[in-house]
Amino acid sequence: MRRYWQPVLMSRELPEPDCPPVRVRILGEELVAFRSTSGRVGLVDEWCAHRRTSLWLGRNEEDGLRCVFHGWKYDVTGQCVDMPNELPEFDFKEKVRIKAYPTQEMGSVIWAYLGPKDKQPPPPSFEWTRQPETHLHVSKGVQECNWLQALEGGLDSIHTSFLHRRFGGSRPGLGGLRAQATAAKLEVHTTPYGYTYASIRPLGDGQGNYVRTYHYVMPNHQIRAIQEFTDDGSMTKFKIAGHMWVPIDDENCMTWNWYYSLDNPLDDSERDESFWGNGPTFIDEQNGFRAYLNRRNDWGIDREVQKNETFTGIEGVNQQDRAVQEAMGPIVDRSKEMLSQTDKAIVAARRLLLDATKTVEDGGSPLGADDSYYDIRAIERVLPPDTQWLEALKDQMYPTGAPF
Ligand SMILES: [Fe+2]
Q1: pTM for the complete prediction?
Q2: Distance between CA atoms of 378 and 291, rounded to whole angstroms?
Q3: Which residues of the chain have a pLDDT value below 70?
Q4: Distances 226 to 144, 154, 213 between C-alpha atoms, Å
Q5: CA of residue 393 to ligand 1 center, whole Å
Q6: Among 179, 272, 317, 371, which is most buried by a count of CB atoms within 10 Å?
Q7: What is the pLDDT of residues 135-194, one digit of tens each?
Q8: Where in the chain is the domain with CATH 3.90.380.10?
Q9: Which CATH number fits domain 5-119: 3.40.50.2300, 3.40.1350.10, 3.40.50.150, 2.102.10.10?
Q10: Edge to edge, what strands does the sheet with 100-101 contain?
Q11: How far is the CA of 23 from the centre of ligand 1 (A)?
């Protein structure tokens, strides 16, 4: 996890130079982020080196964050640059430095690299992070479980035919081809960044296969297709979406949501995330981006709605994801699972993560800590039976050429 750039904040959480600092919890670390007078983002240890109070209380002024206890001040590199409580002969600020991590901003997101200095990978230049603001939407919310079981949910295409189904009516949910064909064959193809895979749902009656492709970009990033079609099969919207699941600690993660349009700018209705169970209706931005619906209120399940309107009775597509993933417990006991064919993508991700852990332990570079994912797209289409999906879709999935 430390060998890759990780998203830590949305840029709008630090809206201007010298704005209030923000707490960041990531990989079990307690950090504080601030945007300095010159606009650079610092990500430093939350605790002042002196008496260990919180720098979140600090004054963000003149290119540094100043502790409110005794006035010690740190720049974005963590260097102490002022020690105003000591006379010049006792001043030792040049000897004081707190932990600091490099940051950069791309795609309305502040990213940080928490790994060894000499192993820093190239910038997180996904196609989505290169989009103009008019075509991109990014949000996030806390999920109360280990990041891996959230990722595994996101790499599991077939659950969308069940968990997210609606039986008609207006509640958020998925129908269409996914409701028509609820069983799939999965095919996983390993790539230099992780893998791509397709869920292949036979539609019956010679209608071909509904093929949805995903990308798994190591170690915690999913990219999926959300294209929209008319009944005659022509595409009306070319959108691509994805999630990242970033560990806060072992039992909590931050779920990032992004989508972008490759044709028209996103309009207000497309930015309204109520359908997805994200955004201000579902996520309390004033309370650390925690979800209003959670284990303590049974995710708001409504048994009448479950009987008549949606498969779950839980409102909002990603709220349904959070519910089932949190309901597994903070860290699910995988020794008691019984996996089936449609769990192939989950199995493949676990193998790659175990391999990557070993690679890093042996001093190597893990998959995806490079630029191999820069120009990948997730595509969904109905293809004639017996079509080899990767051959058929390769040019659309890799518009500048496949990295394999
Ligand atoms: Fe889902």
Answers
A1: 0.96
A2: 28
A3: none
A4: 26, 14, 10
A5: 23
A6: 317
A7: 999 999 999 999 999 999 999 999 999 999 999 888 999 888 888 899 999 999 999 999
A8: 128-397
A9: 2.102.10.10
A10: 22-26, 29-35, 41-45, 100-101
A11: 29
Cα gap 62→81, rounded to integer Å = 11
Rg of the chain on CA atoms, in Å: 23
* pLDDT (0 to 100) of residue 175: 84
Identify the architecture of domain 128-397 in CATH.
Alpha-Beta Complex (3.90)
Ligand 1 center to 154 CA (angstroms): 6
